[in-house]
Every structure is written in C-alpha cells, then in structure tokens.
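lol ok so funny story. i was supposed to be doing the assay writeup but got distracted and ended up predicting the structure for this chain instead. priorities right. anyway since i did it might as well share w the group, maybe its usefull for someone
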Amino acid sequence: MRILIVEDDHKIANAIKKGLEQESFAVDVAYDGDDGLDSALTGDYDLAILDRMIPGEQDGLGILREMRKHKLHTPTIFVTAKDAISDRVNGLDAGADDYLVKPFAFEELLSRVRALLRRPKDTLNPVLKTDEIELDTVNFTVKRGDKQIELTTKEFSLLEYMMRNTGRILTKDNIISHVWDFDADILPNTVEVYIGYLRNKIDRPFKGQKYINTRRGFGYYFGRLR
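and the output, tada:
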C-alpha cells in the first residue's frame, strides 16, 4: 500500500513517514502545496494524508478539490490544527474521508488509515486468505497451512499487494508504484529479486499449488489467473 503525505512541518511529516514505513507502507512526502498537488495527480496512491495549511498556490483543501475534480477518489485524511466545526465541515464537504486535529497520537492516525484502506473494496480486509495462504495485516503474520512463514517488511508488502490483486497480472511498474516509495533506489531487476525471495519462502518448500507465478512478457500474478 502506497501513501502520500503533504505536510510542511518536516518533523511531523518525517515522523508519520517513519511510523507508516514501520507498518510496511510505502510512503512519499511533499512539503508544500505545489509538490503535493503534482504528486497527488500523477502518483498512484492508495491513501493521502493532507495538512490543511501548507505553503504554495494550493492549500490542503485546494489539493483535495483538484483530486476530486480529476475523478481521483483516493481515500484522504486531513491532519490539521484547524479544529473549528466549520473547518471540519468544509474539509468533509470538499471530499475528505476523515479529519484528525493536531496534536494527535500516531496510533490513532494508523487506526484511521487502516479503517479507510478497508473501506474502498471488499478485498481490502485485515486478514487475506487464498486457499492455504493467510496474511494478517494487523499482526504482520503469514501462514501456509499450519506453517508460519517469516517475511521481511518489503516481502510482506509485496505479498500483500499481490494477494489483494489475486489472479490479476501485475507489471513491474504496478508493483514498484505500490510497494516502493518514489525515492527508493530501484534497480531493473529489483522486482525479480523479491519475487524470487517470495517463491523461496511461499512455494518452493511446499508441495502442491504454486502461488507466485509469472506470465512471460507481461508480469506476475498470485494464485490462478482470472
């Protein structure tokens, strides 16, 4: 899952980024409204966290209105010091999905992020299960049958993305845009390497179905093609 943060306070932005990355999210940060709007309109994000009051031609409210004008229905949370009822109403009326007043506990923000990511699609559930494979996004555990499988943070993120798109062919660009943040140093074979890591843990030690599959010339898919 890839998240955009638009926040001009570097300390707050970097703290949120660090916390979300520890929870296996890929995170990009913009520190002003101009960069934030450009990222929101051109990036492929699963959720956006916007500050209301940021420098630039567009404040957080303007960014959200532009997103909705461009038919981008990315779940969005406002984090802001503007706590008047009218401010909340304006934010929600502009298309925000949630509104969190500063100061706030990271645990509360994380809970709201997870709640919104569960909302858009039926597949966005906290526990994903396909045949023998079960992935718990809250406790960060993976099992095949009764056997617990230990994954690194990036392996877990890759498997989660593939399971949320079971049976769909995913290109390398699809995978990179959802599993790695914009600033990550991605080599041409990085996706292939991590696909190999997953196969070594999910498939090769077991008899039976192979879950991590390749469609040559197209990309990768989890499970059986739709």
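Helices lie at 10-22, 33-42, 60-69, 85-93, 106-118, 153-164, 172-179, 190-203. DSSP finds eight helices and eleven strands in the chain.
back to the writeup now i swear
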